UniProtKB/TrEMBL annotation:
It comes from Curvibacter cyanobacteriorum. InterPro entries: NAD(P)-bd_dom, NAD(P)-bd_dom_sf, NmrA-type_oxidoreductase. CDD domains: TMR_SDR_a. This is SDR family oxidoreductase. Residues 6-183 form the NAD(P)-binding domain.
């Protein structure tokens, strides 16, 4: 039995779909905070169980009978380390044979502010001795595609990544890789640095947007603080604006670049390129 936490999220839903291409639905459990909102998952034939990272009793019930668990990192930045510890403890109580954790690209050395809670989770996993595999995910191309509508509206794509190259891949690529790891033998102790086969600067991203949209959309590089202010001015919460600006600043230092091609090796195919994802976003 394979349990996927956070299964109602964007990544989780894709992992469930990828798993169902490899194993029967009877072997898959979708663990979600609010089962009432998981009708689309139940319709796939998988078992839906409640799992709230803040309520250990729900985690014990969700992991009952589980052989493998995918711990998808919580979206609640600032609370994640403790939430992940709760899930890891529950997995250990349940006798889980392998826990796969979605971490961050080169989490142990990343300058991103996001890295701290991933580092804490990785350290905790190591300290408790639960057999585990680390899926250190790079950037989702969708993270930048979300800025396409405002870029088209305002006639510019803004950021603070400078000339930093970003080796992103589609969210579905990372989901498929997670599903592969959950079904492969001998995964305990492995660390996967996962990123796209090709990389781009944000200027090149803007050039591709210009080419496909037929509009001239330049990339405007801002100081990190100014970029954060612009995001807040566009209506983003302060915390999210800080996270995005910090991530761009990290990208300028190479934090989102990797050329090891471990993701495509896991997939057995090239990762999804920017151009088709841009076309989907524009459509």
């Amino acid at each position: 039995m394979i349990v996927v936490t956070g299964a109602n999220g964007q990544l989780g839903q894709l992992v469930i779909q990828a798993l169902l291409r490899q194993v029967p639905a009877s072997q898959v459990v979708a663990a979600v905070r609010q089962p009432a909102k998981a009708a689309q998952l139940a319709a796939l034939g998988v078992q839906v169980r409640q799992a709230d990272y803040n309520q250990p009793a729900t985690l014990d019930a969700a992991f009952q009978g589980a052989h493998r668990v995918l711990l998808i990192s919580s979206s609640e930045v600032g609370q994640r380390a403790l939430q992940h510890q709760n899930a890891i403890d529950a997995a250990q109580r349940a006798g889980v044979q392998l826990l796969a954790y979605t971490s961050l690209l080169r989490a142990d050395a990343s300058p991103l502010g996001l890295a701290a809670e991933h580092q804490a989770t990785e350290a905790y996993l190591k300290s408790v001795g639960l057999p585990h595999v680390l899926l250190r995910n790079g950037w989702y191309t969708e993270n930048y595609l979300a800025s396409v509508p405002p870029a088209l509206q305002h006639g510019a794509f803004i950021g603070s990544a400078g000339e930093g190259r970003i080796a992103s891949a589609a969210r579905a690529d990372y989901a498929e890789a997670a599903a592969r790891v959950l079904t492969l033998p001998d995964q305990a102790g492995r660390v996967y640095e996962l990123a796209g086969d090709s990389a781009y600067t944000l200027a090149e991203f803007a050039a591709e947007l210009s080419r496909q949209s037929g509009k001239t959309i330049p990339y405007v590089n801002l100081p990190e603080a100014d970029y954060q202010k612009a995001l807040v001015g566009a209506g983003l919460p302060e915390g999210l604006a800080h996270l995005l600006a910090d991530s761009d600043a990290g990208a300028a230092q190479g934090a989102l670049f990797d050329e090891g091609r471990q993701l495509s090796a896991l997939l057995g195919r090239p990762t999804t390129a920017l151009a088709p994802l841009m076309a989907q976003a524009l459509a």
